[in-house]
Amino acid sequence: MQNTTINKEASKKISLEQLKNLQDFNAFMDKARVSLGELSIQYEFQKADILSQIAVQQQNFNELEKVIKEEHGNIRVNIETGEIVKQEKQ
After folding, report:
1. Which pairing describes strands 84-86 and 75-77: parallel, antiparallel, or unpaired?
2. Which pLDDT value is given to residue 10?
3. Is the overall model pTM greater than 0.70, yes or no?
4. Interatomic CA distance for residues 43 and 56, integer angstroms
5. Sign of CA dihedral 60, 66, 68, 71
6. Contact in structure between 53 and 62 (CB atoms under 8 Å)
7. d(CA 38, CA 32)
8. CA dist 87 → 63, 64, 74, 77, 83 (Å)
9. What does the pLDDT read at residue 5?
10. What is the pLDDT along the chain (90 residues), one digit of tens a residue?
11. Domain extents in the chain
C-alpha cells in the first residue's frame, strides 16, 4: 500500500460567502432554465391555439365570401362602409 500525501494547496476551500454565492448563482440558473422551458411550452401552446383560431376564422370568411358572391356576384366591398363596388373584368 502506497502512502499518499495530500497537497495542502489542493485541500484549501473557498470562503463560505463565495460558496453561498456560487450556490445561489447555480440555483438561479437552474430556475431560469426551467422557467425558459415552461415559457417555451406555453408559447407553443398559445401559438397553436391562435393558429387554430385563424384557420376557423379563415373558413368562416371563405363561407361568408361565397354567400356574398352568390348573392351579389363578383364584387368588391368597402370594408368600412359596406358599399358594393362592381369588380372590373381584367
Report:
1. antiparallel
2. 64
3. no
4. 20
5. negative
6. no
7. 10
8. 19, 17, 6, 9, 12
9. 63
10. 566 665 666 678 999 999 999 999 999 999 999 999 999 999 999 999 999 999 999 999 999 999 999 999 889 999 999 999 876 665
11. 16-86
Q: If you write DSSP's letter for every residue of 25-69 in order, what string do you get? A: HHHHHHHHHHHHHHHHHHHHHHHHHHHHHHHHHHHHHHHHHHHHH
- CA 55: distance to chain centroid? 18
Enter the C-alpha cell of residue 35.
Answer: 422557467
What 8-state DSSP symbol labels residue 12? -
Cell numbers linked to 5: 500525501
Cell numbers 440558473 correspond to: 29
